C-alpha cells in the first residue's frame, strides 16, 4: 500500500493497556497556566524510566472549566493505579500547587476507580487545610501565599491504551524532522490522546531488554541507520533517518484515529516508508495493523 | 527603606550551598531545542521533593555552541554531587536523548569535580556505542534512529548557591501576579542564575518540618493571608497576596545581582512590601540582607 | 522522678499520626519464613529517608495463620495511604514473592480503608494469574516456579502512631548498649508495636532541617557527647553516650505501654537519665509525658 | 551428564557485567553487627526492581578488621557506578549510621574507581563533622549520640559478574526446598560471592519484558509447573517444583566456583534435573556452560 510516494508497510503497532487520569488545571491567565503545565508535563516521556507519561490533551476555554478560568486538560498515564497514585500527587504537589493562581479538578468524574489527590496533598497545609463539598464532590483548600490552593480530593482513573506508534523512514534528517513535526502536530489536534515524547516524537527507539542486567530497555538497533550492515536492519534502502510517534489515548479508537492522522500528515515525497513497532505480538494486547487502519 | 511606595523590609534571605552543573544542549533548530528543554526542565521546582532544581540559564547562538547549532545553557542544581550524578543522567537519558537531533555538551569544563554523563548513558547503546576523543575531551556516540546521539562522557560540577529569594506582598492577587512576573522576567535576563519554580515564581512558600512525621516541609502559615488572625503572621496590613521568587546561581554574587534586579522590577504602587525568607540564620550559609544589597 | 538510680526527666515524647498496615506472611517452615522477613523488613528504619518503617510485630503459630503454616505479623508504617500503597506492593513483590513457599494475607481485615496488594502484584503473572474468592475475600494466585504465590487482593490500612520514643543517657557506651538492648527486647515482647531502627535502637538522633538545603534532617547536636561545650547540650553531667528507642504502634495506648516497658527495662545504675525527644510540642499530635506514663 | 540420579542439562547460565563495592562494617559486638547487617542487606533481591543486590560475603574476625572489632564484608552490586553511588550512600546512612556502635570501611582499596560514601553522609553532621587522614585514607567523623560515626570518605568500585545461576527441578516442594537450602548454604561458604535473593534462593523466576508496558520483567512461564500444558515448558517430566540460585561475584571465576559448589550440593535423588537460565546468549556477556563447569 502506498500514500503518494510513501510505502505503508504491512505491519502493526503493538500497544498496551495502561491506566490514566485526566486533570483539569486552571489558572488566572494563560501565562500562569502555561507555567504550571510546562512544569507538570516535563520529565515524562516514557514509563520505561520516568514515573509517568504525560501530555496536554487540549486547551479549555473559560466556558469549559469548573471555575470559569482558562484551563488545560492533561492526561497522565501510568503502569498501574498504584503507580499513578504516587506520580499524580507528587507532580501536582511540586508543579501545580507551587504555581501562582492554579487549581486542579478531576477530569474523569464518571470513572469507577479513583485515586487520592487533594487527600494526599492536604498534609502540606500542616493542619490548616479545610475540605468542602460542592455538588457532591469534595475539595481541599490548602492555605498558600496567594490564598488557597483548591484541589479535588480524588480523581478518576480509567483503562487507556499506550504505545500506539508509527515509524517514519526518510531519506535524510531534514525530511525526517519535517515529517515528524507534521505527524506530531496532527496528533496534537486529535481529541483524547497525547504524544508523550519531546515535541511528540521519539528518536531513541528501544527494544525490551539489554545485554546489561538491570537495564530494562536498550536501543532498537534494527532502526539505527549507522548500524546497517552490522545488524539485521528494518530500514528500507535509501533510508538515513527514522522517527517514531508514540500515542497514548483514552481508548483503542482514540489511538487508532490519531495514528491515521499521523500517517496521513507524515506521508510525503522524501518519506520512503511508514512502518510501526511491535514485539511480535506477544506482549501488548492491542494490535494496530496499518493497512486496516487506513482502509477503515 | 523604600523604593517608591514599596517598603523594603530590613531582613535577609537565607540561601544554601548546593552543587550544580551546566549542560549545553543543541539541536537542529529552535523547535526541537525547545522540545528537549521543556522536557528536561520540567518537574524540578525544588529539591525538597523533586530530584533536582533546573532551569534555562540562557539561549546560545550558533556561534556559541560546540557544533554550530542553536543551543541552550541549562543549570541543574542538586543537594550533593552524588544526587546530581543520578539526576543528570536520568534526565538527559529520558528528555534529551529521546528528542530528535539533540546533542549534549559539558558547560563547566574547568570544574575540578566531574560526574559521569555519557559514561552512564552509553549503556543504552547495548554494546554498539563508540567513544571518540576530540580536543582532549571524550564523547560517546550512541546509535539512535536519526543517526547518533552525541553526549560528553562527563560534565563538570561546581559549588553554587541555592535559595536566594524575595517575597513580594501585594494588595491583591492581580497586583501580585504582575509583580511576580516582572521580577521573574528580570531574573531571566540575568546571567548565571535560574528561577526554578513554575514561571520563576513560588506561591506555596514552605517552612522546614511539619506536624506530620516524614513530611520534610509544610506551608509557611506566617505568609498565608487566609490564616491571618489564627497564626503569627508576617504579612503587612492590607496585604492579600504574597509570592516568592527563588533564585539559584553559580556563586554568591550572581544570586545577589539577580535579587537586586528582581526587587527593582517588582517594586510598584500596589506592592506594599518586599521581604525575604530565612530560617533565623541558623541553617543556610549565605545571608542576603536586602538593605545591604540595595545599597551595594 | 527516679527509678532506682535513674532520673526520669519531666519531659515528653512527641509522636505523629501515620498510616500502617499489618501483613501476615506465612511459609513452609521457619527457615524460609525468616528469609522472607529479613528481606521484607530491611532498609526501613525511618520514613525520613526510607520508603517505610517496618518490623516484626510478633510470631504466629500454625493455629493463628489462615493456611495453618508458621507465620509472622509484620507492621509497615508510611507517611500516607498513598505512600503505603507503593511501598507495600514493591516490598512484597521483591522480598516475599521471590522467596520460596511464602504467602501473604491481610492482617487488618476490619479496616475501613484498603490498599491494593495482589491487585498490583498480579501483573507479574503476565496474564496467567487467576483470582479466587474465599470467605468473601479475594486472592490472587500468581504462577511461580514452586507453584503459585497466593496473595490477598488488598490489605487494610489504619491510623497508627509513630515516633514514640525514649532517650537513655548513660555513663559510657558499654552501659548504653546494654540498656538499649534491654529496652529493645522489652518493646519486642509487647503486642501491637514495632521498633523500626536496627536492633530496635537509633543512635543517630536527628532534628528537623539542616544547614544544607534539601536535607530534611540532620544530627541532633544537643544529644551528641562530643559536641558538649560547643552547642547547647541536653546531656546530663557524666553522660558519654545516648541511645534512642523509637516505637511505632497501632494506637496511642500501644505506644504508651511499650514506652513504659522500655523505660522500666532500661533504668539501671549506669543509666544516669531517661529523657525523650520532642519538637516543642508543635509538630506531633501525640505527647507522651514520661511522668504521667509511669504514674498511670 | 548425571550426578547420581540428577540430570545436568547441557545448557548454560547467562550472566552480566555489573559494578560492585565491598564494605567492611564493624560494631561493638555480634549483636549490633547483625542488627546493622540485617537492615543493610534487606530489600535488595534483584536490580530489576530494587536499587541494588546485596549480601554478606563473609564474617571477619577482630584480627581482620581495621578497628579490631567484629566485622562483616558486605558486597553490593549495582547496574552502574552511578547507581551504586546513590544506593550505597542511602543504605549506609539509613541502616548503618543509625545503628549503635558501627563503623564502615572501604573493602576494595585497590580499585581504580571510587564512589563517595563519607563524603555524602558527612552532611548529616550539619557542619559539626570532621575529617581525618590515617595511612593515606580519609575518614569522616560524624557526631552521633554514642560519639562519632566513623566512615571512610570513599569506597572502591570494581567490575563484577551478576546473575550466575542454576535451576533445580524437583519432584515436589519439600525436596525442592531441601535442595535449594543445601545449594544456598554451599554458596554462602564460598568466598567472593553472594546469593542476593531471600535465603539465597529465587522462586519467582522471571523473563525480560511483559505484556504490560512499563513492567520490565514477568514470570518465566516456562518454569511454572501449574502452567504446563498451556505454555511451552522447560520442566522435565515429573517435576512439580523449581528453584533458582542466583550468584553475584567479584569475577567470572568466583561465580563459576560458586555454581559448581551449588550444583554438587543440590544434586540428589529427588532432584530430577539441574538446568540454568539464559536469554539465548544474546544479552549477558558471561556464559557458564554447566557441563564445562563440572569437567573443569
Describe it for me?
Four copies of one chain form a homotetramer. The first copy, chain A, has six helices and 17 strands. In chain A, β9 and β10 form a beta hairpin. Chain A is of the alpha+beta class. Chain A is 23% helix and 36% strand. The interface between A and C is medium-sized, with 13 and 13 residues.
Strand/helix succession of chain A = EEEHEEHEEHEEEEHEEEEHEEH
- What is the end-to-end distance of chain A? 14 Å
Oligomer: homotetramer
Contiguous low-pLDDT stretches of chain A (5 residues minimum) are none
How would a crystallographer describe the biggest sheet of chain A? 15 strands, mixed
Average pLDDT taken over every residue of chain A: 96
Please tell me how large the radius of gyration of chain A is: 21 Å
The largest inter-chain interface, given as chain pair and residues per side, is: A-B, 81 and 81 residues
Give the overall shape of chain A, derived from the CA principal axes.
Answer: elongated
Proportion of residues in extended strands of chain A: 35-45%
Given helix and strand content, the structural type of chain A is: alpha+beta
DSSP helix fraction of chain A: 10-25%
Compute the number of helices of chain A: 6
Q: What is the β-strand count of chain A? A: 17
Amino acid at each position: 500500500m502506498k500514500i503518494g510516494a510513501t510505502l505503508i508497510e504491512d505491519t502493526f503497532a503493538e500497544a498496551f493497556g495502561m491506566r490514566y487520569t485526566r486533570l483539569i488545571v486552571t489558572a488566572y491567565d494563560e501565562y500562569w497556566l502555561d507555567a504550571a503545565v510546562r512544569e507538570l508535563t516535563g520529565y515524562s516521556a516514557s514509563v520505561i524510566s520516568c514515573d509517568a507519561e504525560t501530555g496536554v490533551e487540549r486547551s479549555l476555554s473559560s466556558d469549559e472549566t469548573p471555575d470559569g478560568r482558562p484551563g488545560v486538560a492533561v492526561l497522565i498515564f501510568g503502569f498501574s493505579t498504584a503507580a499513578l497514585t504516587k506520580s499524580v500527587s507528587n507532580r501536582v504537589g511540586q508543579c501545580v500547587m507551587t504555581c501562582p493562581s492554579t487549581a486542579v479538578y478531576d477530569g474523569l468524574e464518571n470513572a469507577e476507580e479513583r485515586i487520592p489527590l487533594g487527600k494526599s496533598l492536604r498534609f502540606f497545609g500542616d493542619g490548616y487545610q479545610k475540605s468542602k463539598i460542592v455538588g457532591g464532590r469534595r475539595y481541599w483548600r490548602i492555605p498558600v501565599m496567594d490564598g488557597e490552593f483548591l484541589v479535588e480530593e480524588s480523581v478518576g482513573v480509567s483503562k487507556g491504551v499506550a504505545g500506539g506508534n508509527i515509524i517514519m523512514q526518510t531519506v535524510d534528517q531534514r525530511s525526517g524532522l519535517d515529517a515528524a513535526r507534521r505527524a506530531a502536530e496532527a496528533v496534537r489536534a486529535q481529541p483524547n490522546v497525547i504524544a508523550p515524547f519531546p515535541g511528540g516524537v521519539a528518536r531513541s527507539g528501544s527494544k525490551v531488554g539489554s545485554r546489561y542486567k538491570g537495564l530494562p530497555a536498550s536501543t532498537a538497533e534494527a532502526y539505527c541507520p549507522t548500524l546497517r550492515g552490522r545488524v539485521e536492519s528494518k530500514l528500507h534502502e535509501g533510508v538515513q533517518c527514522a522517527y517514531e510517534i508514540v500515542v497514548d489515548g483514552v481508548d483503542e479508537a482514540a489511538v487508532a484515529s490519531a495514528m491515521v492522522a499521523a500517517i496521513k500528515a507524515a506521508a510525503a515525497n522524501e518519506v520512503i516508508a511508514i512502518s510501526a513497532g511491535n514485539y511480535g505480538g506477544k506482549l501488548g494486547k492491542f494490535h494496530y495493523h496499518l493497512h486496516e487502519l487506513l482502509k477503515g
